[in-house]
Amino acid sequence: MTSDSQPPNLFDTVPFAGVKDGDQVIDIGLSTETPVCDFCSADPAVVYFPVEEFEIVHPGLIQGMAVVSGDRFYACGPCAELFEAGKLGGLRRRYTSLQQSAPSDSAVALWLGAKNHRQGDPVTFQPGTNPEQGR
Ligand SMILES: [Zn+2]
After folding, report:
1. N or C: which end of the chain has fewer CB within 10 A?
2. From which domain of life does this come (predicted)?
3. Distance from C-alpha of 16 to C-alpha of 40, rounded to nearest angstrom
4. Distance 40 CA to ligand 1 centre (A)
5. Cα distances (angstroms) measured from residue 24 to each of 52, 68, 117
6. Would you say residue 94 has pLDDT above 90?
7. Average pLDDT value for residue range 59-63
């Protein structure tokens, strides 16, 4: 169990993001073979949504630093359907059910940002492959 007074662990909630300090971006993404869903953090991703990169503040970071979104949000099948339908409440319930805890405010802020900064259609890929390879 995590305490409500603790800032959420970025590694738990933001699988493919970075932290920006001035002009430098530090990759904090999990080093998994294949992408995990950016929404529920539980299931392998099968699709990604291209987004215009954006930033959010995070209580676990020192002043002046920000979380940068990256330009893709990965999703498993069920989360992709919820995100496509704009159902952030559904994504929140799914996360809570799978992780036994509510998503952090930062995670929800990233989901909302992804919705607002979306660019174009979702891109499907073969489960078990990694579209990040060769980028
Ligand atoms: Zn998911």
Report:
1. N
2. Bacteria
3. 13
4. 4
5. 18, 11, 22
6. yes
7. 75
